[in-house]
Design a protein that fits this description.
The chain has 243 residues and is α/β, with parallel strands linked by helices. α2 crosses α3, α2 packs across α13 and α4 runs parallel beside α13. The longest helix has 16 residues. The radius of gyration is 17 Å and the shape is globular. The chain binds uridine-5'-diphosphate.
């Protein structure tokens, strides 16, 4: 059993980066079905209003804190947990897949981004077994799930934005066997070089969200008031639990 804490009623698994990676490796080697969620405050605020999404988060086998907001919310409760960023974790999973011959499927992002990502990865990792790829703008998800099934993929990256990718991965989990899936949001755009990774100083300070908002100001309304509201609720929760 992995250690778990709750933030505003939502499960977060408490493990070190390497432990999270090992959990995925063990699950893949044992042919288990797992869904990995890289959670951030936007997920929690959305799940409060969407019981189906809340349910998917509840039953996900591995929920790692992608956002600095989650790390802070845990800190308010006296828990030190490192941030496990989707973009880093995806990179580590690719290296794991390369070493262990896992069969990778890449589903999501715009067609040109998806194609570029496959190109970049195939060039960098000639032995990487990419068995399936598709952009994220499809009509019928059942068709895509059937194609993933036929491809024999056992490691599936989805980058469809949340909660779409989490619902998709949940469906994947009930439809397929021995598959680890992970929702990766805008990570394909970064990995394909179409969006720049936040510079190290932003990463060090946990301010990737600020960098993304400066680069794409239209994201402002997604962050505000969600992020301050989330932190406010987290502080109230932490104060309440210390009574
Ligand atoms: N996307 C997709 N299909 C959709 C909606 C979005 O493939 O129907 C992709 C989009 O092209 C982008 C990613 O999903 O690559 C999500 O990006 P966003 O920045 O919204 O995600 P976040 O990281 O904020 O979850």
């Amino acid at each position: 059993m992995i250690n778990t804490a709750k933030v505003q009623g939502f499960k977060i698994n408490l493990l070190k980066y390497e432990e999270a990676l090992n959990f995925v490796k063990t699950s893949l080697d044992n042919g288990e079905n797992i869904q990995i969620v890289t959670i951030n405050p936007e997920f929690i605020e959305a799940a409060k209003k969407n019981p189906d999404f809340a349910n998917v988060l509840k039953y996900a086998e591995l929920v790692v804190p992608d956002g600095v907001g989650i790390k802070l919310a845990l800190k308010f409760k006296g828990i030190n947990q490192e941030q496990i960023r989707g973009v880093d974790f995806a990179q580590s999973l690719i290296e794991l897949a390369d070493k262990n011959g896992y069969k990778l499927a890449l589903v999501g992002a715009k067609p040109e981004v998806n194609t570029k990502l496959v190109e970049i990865l195939s060039e960098k990792y000639p032995n990487l077994n990419i068995v399936y790829s598709h952009d994220g703008y499809f009509e019928n998800e059942d068709v895509i799930i059937e194609e993933i099934k036929k491809s024999g993929a056992n490691l599936v990256f989805t980058a469809l934005g949340a909660p779409k990718q989490e619902f998709f991965n949940d469906k994947l989990k009930v439809s397929l066997q021995g598959v680890a899936s992970i929702g990766l949001g805008g990570t394909f755009d970064v990995m394909a070089g179409c969006v720049k990774l936040a510079p190290p100083i932003y990463r060090k300070l946990g301010l990737e969200w600020l960098y993304r908002t400066i680069k794409q100001p239209e994201r402002f309304k997604r962050i505000f008031p969600t992020l301050p509201l989330f932190l406010f609720h987290s502080i109230i929760e932490a104060l309440g639990s210390k009574d």
